[in-house]
Automatic annotation (TrEMBL):
<feature type="transmembrane region" description="Helical">
    <location>
        <begin position="157"/>
        <end position="180"/>
    </location>
</feature>
<keyword id="KW-0812">Transmembrane</keyword>
<dbReference type="GO" id="GO:0006865">
    <property type="term" value="P:amino acid transport"/>
</dbReference>
<keyword id="KW-0029">Amino-acid transport</keyword>
<keyword id="KW-0813">Transport</keyword>
<feature type="transmembrane region" description="Helical">
    <location>
        <begin position="124"/>
        <end position="145"/>
    </location>
</feature>
<feature type="transmembrane region" description="Helical">
    <location>
        <begin position="35"/>
        <end position="56"/>
    </location>
</feature>
<keyword id="KW-0472">Membrane</keyword>
<keyword id="KW-0496">Mitochondrion</keyword>
<keyword id="KW-1133">Transmembrane helix</keyword>
<dbReference type="GO" id="GO:0015075">
    <property type="term" value="F:monoatomic ion transmembrane transporter activity"/>
</dbReference>
<comment type="similarity">
    <text>Belongs to the sideroflexin family.</text>
</comment>
<feature type="transmembrane region" description="Helical">
    <location>
        <begin position="68"/>
        <end position="90"/>
    </location>
</feature>
<protein>
    <submittedName>
        <fullName>SFXN4 protein</fullName>
    </submittedName>
</protein>
<dbReference type="Pfam" id="PF03820">
    <property type="entry name" value="SFXNs"/>
</dbReference>
<dbReference type="GO" id="GO:0005743">
    <property type="term" value="C:mitochondrial inner membrane"/>
</dbReference>
<dbReference type="InterPro" id="IPR004686">
    <property type="entry name" value="Mtc"/>
</dbReference>
Length: 210
């Protein structure tokens, strides 16, 4: 639970710092709301991530199939889903209040909730791919390493596992960040009528965040 809490605290802080700064609210402190949402997302994600292992340990389920599912197969989709959930929670003000959209020349033409929703969903998807793959692929690679008996020393095996995880993470970072352009694009037909009435542009852009 502690390690899950640390992991999701880091990813939540990263999300807070690198979101789109457009949303404004007069009736409450937006920063306080995001911190509150972040704490809720951290607590929920940490509990969800730790629950399967706690369940197995509590009821001493030691069958090989159960251990395989809980320790090897389940962490990857859980990390992917909880990472995406954290992004959606922390950056929810962006699709509640909207974000700025610009024309080709960089001129702000309005604030769009639809663009905010698109930016958050794209970022959540890229984060899910990043951490889901980072926790899934090393398990697959380590399975073949152990099966081929390339490494026999248990301590050396731990070092190899950490090296593989760090290598996959380093490789997936640029892949995740490049899945969607930092300067996102949204079509005219996807924007609100009040924005369209003020311009004849057909393509609009927004800062997606990371």
């Amino acid at each position: 639970l502690f390690l899950q809490f640390v992991f999701h605290t880091y990813t939540t802080a990263f999300t807070l710092v690198n979101g789109n700064g457009t949303p404004k609210a007069e009736e409450y402190s937006l920063q306080q709301k995001q911190i509150f949402l972040g704490l809720g997302a951290i607590s929920y994600s940490a509990c969800v991530g730790a629950l399967p292992l706690a369940f197995v340990n509590r009821y001493t389920l030691k069958s090989s199939l159960m251990q395989l599912v809980v320790r090897k197969l389940l962490p990857a989709p859980l990390f992917g889903l909880t990472s995406a959930f954290t992004v959606a929670m922390v950056r929810s003000p962006e699709f509640d209040n909207g974000i700025e959209v610009m024309d080709r020349n960089g001129k702000v033409v309005g604030v769009s909730k639809k663009a905010g929703e698109k930016a958050v969903m794209e970022t959540a998807l890229s984060r899910a791919v990043l951490f889901g793959t980072t926790f899934f692929l090393p398990e697959v690679l380590m399975y073949f390493v152990q099966r081929a008996r390339f490494v026999k020393n248990p301590r050396a095996l731990v070092s190899v596992r950490m090296t593989v995880i760090m290598s996959v993470l380093a490789g997936m970072l640029p892949v995740s960040f490049s899945m969607f352009s930092q300067c996102g694009e949204i079509k005219r037909a996807d924007l609100e009528p009040e924005i369209l009435s003020s311009t004849e542009e057909t393509e609009f852009f927004y800062n997606r965040g990371i």
